[in-house]
Amino acid sequence: MVATPADFHVEPTAGRPYAVFTRSRATLPALLKEHGIASGRCFVVTDDNVAELYGAQFETTLQDAGFEVSTHIVPPGETAKDLDALGAMYRWGFANDIDRQSPVIALGGGVVGDLAGFFAATILRGVPLVHVPTTLVAQVDSSIGGKTGVNHQSGKNLIGSFYRPLFTLTDTEFLSSLPEVEWRNGMAEVLKHALIRDREFYHSLREAWPGTLGRAPGAFERVVRRALEIKIEIVGQDELEHGLRRILNFGHTFGHAIERIAGYGTIGHGAAVALGMRAAAWVSAERGYDVSLVEVDALLKTLRPEVLPRLPLDWLIQSMRRDKKRVGNVLHLILLQEIGRAVVVDDVGEAELRTALEYALS
Fold first, then answer.
1. Residue among 25, 184, 252, 278 flagged as catalytic
2. Tens digit of each residue's pLDDT (9 = 90 or more) over 286-295
3. 130 and 25 Cβ atoms separated by less than 8 Å
4. What is the pTM of this model?
5. 59, 78, 189, 259: which one is catalytic?
6. What CATH number has the domain spanning 8-177?
């Protein structure tokens, strides 16, 4: 059998590389067979929304190729990503005789990918994992890089692991059914990639921003491809987030605190990150870095929630202090030295955090 050429390769400095394919989901059975999984049971994890739109068709595609399919459906949104949901998945896996050759296929957005990925990483000490991301956030960000995990009452993604998929299959046709709010959530991550790594991409996004937000023809392929390239480039150099990969957290330390204090599911991940990027951009400009706050903020304002609950600043700062990226009592934040160039700092004081949050939430 002639191997299907990959569109991208994630090549960490140590360990096994893996491919990213940008093509129709109908190619999944052939790709599984090319990767050594020719038959047997597949364990599909998805959520209610994706299952309603694509679940039956997806199962039929696998069954017609000779696979036996078992599907586990979780509620949509961050509230599904906890230890109780993970426990239910273990019971499902064991009840359906999962073995170490059984692939787990994550069909969904970032929540499904994180949850299914951690399930695959830990059940039987690891089974094959395949990502089939269906949202913009998942296609350009969360399905690449091996991060898996669940939330805890103390904070977001505090329990998890790095676990590489067998491969990722990205079909931009999924995006045609994406609700407007989820498209904007994804555009927050796309804009983040441009701000931290690619000035030219940022300017092209800014010029086409109204059309891109409106999902003009060609927007899917254009933004997904370049954002994917940026994520893959960074992950390839620093898979385990010891150095360069930390810049991908631009806006996330603020954003994760906002998500947690507002209540998971109250604010979309992308919208929370957009607020976090507003805060980080404010600190960057306040420190005299070469960032036009007015220009950047004009884009970020289009991605924030229309209605925000009242969020106590003291609680937000306390949550930020528990962020998993801190070292000891030192909180590391990502700022912009200039468009396309990010920097990690560890000297942002509480007064600065407070004012930045006030600005972002105003």
1. 252
2. 999 999 999 9
3. no
4. 0.93
5. 189
6. 3.40.50.1970
